[in-house]
Amino acid sequence: MGQVSITYQILPGDTDTDVQQIADAAKSISEQEGLKVRGYQIVDIAFGIKGVLINIIMPDQGDISEKIEKLFAKIPKVESVEVYDQTLI
Predict the structure, then answer these.
(1) Are the C-beta atoms of 17 and 73 separated by less than 8 Å?
(2) Per residue in 14-49, is it b (16+ CB within 10 Å) or e — as a string?
(3) Could you report the per-residue pLDDT of 52-67, keeping only the tens digit for each?
(4) DSSP string covering 67-85, please?
(5) Cα–Cα separations (whole angstroms), residue 35 to 10, 30, 81
(6) 81 - beta bridge partners?
(7) What is the rounded CA–CA span in Å between residue 1 and residue 35?
(8) How far is it, in rounded angstroms, from Cα 25 to Cα 76?
(9) Mean per-residue pLDDT for 18-39?
């Protein structure tokens, strides 16, 4: 079984949301699940909204990426989570 690098885009519901808290929560969730966080960055999306791109290394198992996506969606004030990029390594 190989490894996969997945970058998730996490978007808040409004411009007043502290995206650094969202990034910290996503990093914490990933580490609690035993995954390696390669890094994250806060990016401008549009109309004053900032989002988080977080890159995670995980085993190439279909269900684990969906599980992480659902856990990220439960972070307070998160509006949407989607896979931004995915690469086998």
Answers:
(1) no
(2) eeebebeebbebbbebbeeeebebeebeeeeeeeeb
(3) 999 999 998 878 889 9
(4) HHHHHHHTSTTEEEEEEEE
(5) 17, 5, 18
(6) 10
(7) 15
(8) 9
(9) 95
Q: 62 Cβ partners below 8 Å, 6+ apart?
A: none
Of 28, 22, 31, nearest to 57 by C-alpha is 31
- pTM for this predicted structure: 0.92
DSSP 8-state symbol, 70: H
Pick the closest to residue 83 from 8, 3, 5, 4 (CA basis).
Answer: 8
58 DSSP β-pair partners = 4
Token pair recorded at residue 37: 């966080």
CB 40 within 8 A of CB 26: yes
**Structure tokens, 62:** 């279909």
